[in-house]
Automatic annotation (TrEMBL):
Biased composition, class Low complexity, residue ranges: 418-439
Compositionally biased intervals (Basic and acidic residues): 186-209, 322-331, 361-381
Name used for this protein in its record: Nucleobindin-2-like
PROSITE patterns associated with the record: EF_HAND_1 (PS00018), EF_HAND_2 (PS50222)
Main localization of the protein described in the UniProt heading: cytoplasm
Subcellular location per the Swiss-Prot or TrEMBL entry: Cytoplasm; Golgi apparatus; Membrane; Secreted
GO molecular function: calcium ion binding; DNA binding; guanyl-nucleotide exchange factor activity
InterPro entries given in the database record: EF-hand-dom_pair, EF_Hand_1_Ca_BS, EF_hand_dom, NUCB1_N, Nucleobindin
GO cellular component: endoplasmic reticulum-Golgi intermediate compartment; extracellular exosome; Golgi apparatus; membrane
Family designation: Belongs to the nucleobindin family.
EF-hand domain location: 239-274
Protein species of origin: Scomber scombrus (Atlantic mackerel)
Signal peptide: 1-21
Topology within the bilayer: Peripheral membrane protein
Amino acid sequence: MVILKGKSLLLLLSLCLYVQSVPISMDKNKEKPKEEELGAPESADTGLHYDRYLREVIEYLEKDPHFKEKLKNADMEDIKQGKLAKELDFVHHNFRTKLDELKREEMNRLRMLLKAKHDIQEGDGRTVDHQALLRQFEHLNHVNPHTFEVDDLDRLIKSATKDLENFDKGQHDEFKRYELMKEHERRERLKKMSEEDRAKEEQHYEEMKKKHADHPKVNHPGSQDQLKEVWQESDGLDPQDFDPKTFFKMHDTNDDGFFDESELEALFTKELEKVYDPKNEEDDMVEMEEERLRMREHVMNEVDTDKDRLVSLSEFMAATNKDEFLEKDEWQTLDQNNPYTDEELKEYEQHLANEASDISQKSDDLQKQREELERKQEELNAQKMGLQQAVEEIERLKAQTVQQPDAPVAETVAQVVPGNNQPLPPGHQQQGVPVPGHS
């Protein structure tokens, strides 16, 4: 199960807002920035299908002093609405040239993908929806495939915004399907057991559920108690000396002034260890990752007021002054929040049953087709054998004719060709064959 990690520089170009830079003169004639070779992007994969392209564009834009300064001081809403994209007009020619090259490379990659998918689908006899394929790549302006323009940056920002807002939902849906399949397979195993074995299995299942649910109190993520526990157990400090600002600076591991999603999730490790242990039969590590995601979303909803998927020091400090920061109730873990309803399980099992029925029908159809092909092959083999025998007989008769030049070859051959069942005319006889009553 993929969980979105790493700094959110790729999220709406927002990380660039926080890169520390010294104001530099905007007169680009004074100093020509040196075009640098692009190495492997360092930021973590976002999970987007155009991840590398996004990272490469951002990496090059960061190298332009003017654009970097604009990113640092821009408002998040301006970025989301595409206003910052217009600043691309002021990016130095060297960087624009490299962006043009990156776009052409991405266009070539997409063309190959489209052709491959087209060839695959055409091979199956299905109609290709080319517009649907192009919509997968809304981050590019296909009308102008050669140069990187303001519209390209605007599209890239908006595509990243839309896709990353839906990314976590996709993870939740994937987890739900995992849980539905796990329960379905458990029920299918029970059906194949004897009554006695089924009772034992059900008892074991209930015991494992009870054992998993028997864990220490899980503090609300982002609450004072939860952070104090990290302060004490991970940092080795006295909980009485807990200071939110000091805590933030200690756990801002890259010292950029923000908690990104990875840094936030690292704070939940102690809480997750209370519930999940990879050595325990009753603990599912896939569920642990879903729990981690739920915790991170909870904190982001409470703290990330500008919705840029980053928690600044000011946002963090403001959150510590809210009533929610003093939350004492236990966090409701997944064993107390079933990810699916009974109705959803019924629908899922019906869906699987329908799929199984379709596969069975297709299998029967394929078997009939195979039997029909085998029958036709047998017929062809029989015809081939008959023709081969006829050819051999013709060759034999030809050899016989060489020895007896006066023999009527055409008539003799006609008698051995398969399918020629016409009787010989009355009084007709083959030369060399004695007639009864004649000497």
